[in-house]
Amino acid sequence: MVMKRSIALCIIFTIITCGIYGMYWQVILTDDTNTLADEPGTSGIMALIFTIITCGIYGLYWAYKRGELIDRAKLDRGIPASNGGVLYLIVFILGGIIAYALIQNEINNLQDYGKTY
């Protein structure tokens, strides 16, 4: 189940825990976007492990893929989608926590729309 989360609290917890909560946040963002897009993609734990093993390089692919999945979830709900993958990739390069916040905002917004088939 996908939950709405306070973006401000997630950022504060990430700062207070020196980034440890940010790792947890990446895990739940991964799982939530997979759920919203009905995509059995890489689990959140595996995404975190790949990001750590590759010293953050996998995070670039991760950010791009989250944008694609959010776009797919929007289209499934009849919402016009943009090229979110490129946006999240660029923002992730500038600051990962900002990308996390934008992705969380999209997840929170998508929960207000029912899925249409």
Largest β-sheet summary: none
From the alpha carbons, calculate the radius of gyration and give it in angstroms.
13 Å
Bulk shape: globular
The helix content is: over 70%
- Detail the poorly predicted runs: none
Number of helices, where a helix is a run of at least 4 consecutive DSSP H or I residues: 6
Per DSSP E runs of 2 or more residues, the count of β-strands stands at 0
Q: Which class of secondary structure composition applies to the elements?
A: mainly alpha
Average pLDDT over all residues: 91
Task: Classify the oligomer.
Answer: single chain
**Ends apart, CA distance between termini:** 19 Å
| Number of spatially distinct domains | 1
Order of helices and strands: HHHHHH
Q: How large a portion of the residues is in β-strands, by DSSP E?
A: under 5%
